[in-house]
Amino acid sequence: MSTTKTRGKTPHRTRAPRRTVENAPMSPFHRRITTYSSGGPFLDGYILGIVGIAMTQMQPMLHLNSTWQGLIGGSALGGMFLGGAVFGYVTDLVGRRLMYTLDLWVIVIMSILQIFATNAPEIFVLRVIMGIAIGADYPIATSLLAEFAPKRHRGTMLGLQIVAWYVGGTVAYLVGYLLVGLGPGAWRWMLASSAVPAFALVILRHGTPESPRWLMAHHRVDEARAVMNQVFGPESELPPANEKPVSFGLVFQDGYLRRTLFVSLFWLFQIVPLFALGAFGPKILSSFGLASGNAANLGSAAINFVFLIGCLPALRLVETVGRRPLIIWSFVFMTVGLAIVSVIAHPPLWMVMFGFVVYALASGGPNVLDWIYPNELYPTRIRASAVGVATSASRIGAFVGTFVLPFSLAAIGIRDTMLIATVITIFGLFVSVLWAEETRGKTLAEASRPE
């Protein structure tokens, strides 16, 4: 409390504003929940990365034809499509806390069972189930994180999720590099190794409180007050109540349909060219002697690291210049990077590398906004559902980039393939100019209110 004196009047006390979720300072609790929520993207990057390394040993041992290689490689992506679409809505119904560790137990169990797999169908089924659990974790963890985040730090806290994805991918290649020395059966331990970070997250996430926003939306006022007192102190103020029930259909209705198209399309248009640019990866790596054998795992880790570096300045810019300018200018420079390697026939290596670096650094903007926009543009009652829809759309993009790209390279060549990737990026720019909103500095209630 502070005392204010005025001439001719007795002193009176001015009451300090009560602590709310939105105006709370960054605390150890916020740092912990940001780290724990990043576990899902970390596992996504790790699981998608490690299977590519394990495939080099699985293929001859299990006699995998090209069809089964493709199915196993994309099994987690298919599972994530289902997991995001279904369990985002389930999370809005039953709460964030219940699902926060349940999905991780599924990943732990499926990871361990891969040690005992004897054929391709068994591995495929196990990895589809793992993908469902990872796809479910995106709306679960990021919704919980957004609903605890102060508005000054919300963009950075959510943006760190993509950093965790690239860290997971980088670690996967390093682990694969180390485990290859175990011999022909090392692929089993590679696939099972995802159980280690998943189990660690189960322990770390234990005891995380339920979102007070979700509790208020479901009229559980006493529980919400207890959580606010625990996290923000006894003088904290409850979030506003939401009287309307959960409705998945609202994601595609009224003012939210445009937002759903925006978050789904910009994420999809970002993912497809990212995988297309990977076509130049072997050419870049070969110049450093990292394109074949176990050394290729180190090269892939290095490429992941470049994309990770691009996310770091974006984490700062999202809170300084804002969301809308960041995504627009990022797509501009991503287009430039792709154009450098697609417009000129047979570009020299230095030009390929320059275009790759420009694209990788610029892609940090949409990367960090992948989880910021879907969580900010929707109210509590449909937030996880919206994140699930956006996650499913992104997996479509990943599927196209993973499976259509090889056919495109064989049919029309790398230059025309990259030209198509450039056009797709321009679509992402167009969608962003047309529909991107500015949510910096707004409370979640303000940001989620339809324009």
From TrEMBL:
Membrane-protein topology: Multi-pass membrane protein
UniProt keyword Transport, yes or no: yes
Domain Major facilitator superfamily (MFS) profile, residue spans: 33-440
Key words of the record: Membrane, Transmembrane, Transmembrane helix, Transport
Any single Pfam family the record assigns to this protein: Sugar_tr
PROSITE patterns membership: MFS, SUGAR_TRANSPORT_2
Disordered as annotated region, ranges: 1-23
Listed GO CC annotations: plasma membrane
MF terms (GO), sorted A to Z: carbohydrate:proton symporter activity
UniProt record similarity statement: Belongs to the major facilitator superfamily. Sugar transporter (TC 2.A.1.1) family.
Entry protein name: MFS transporter
Taxonomic lineage from the root: Bacteria, Bacillati, Bacillota, Clostridia, Eubacteriales
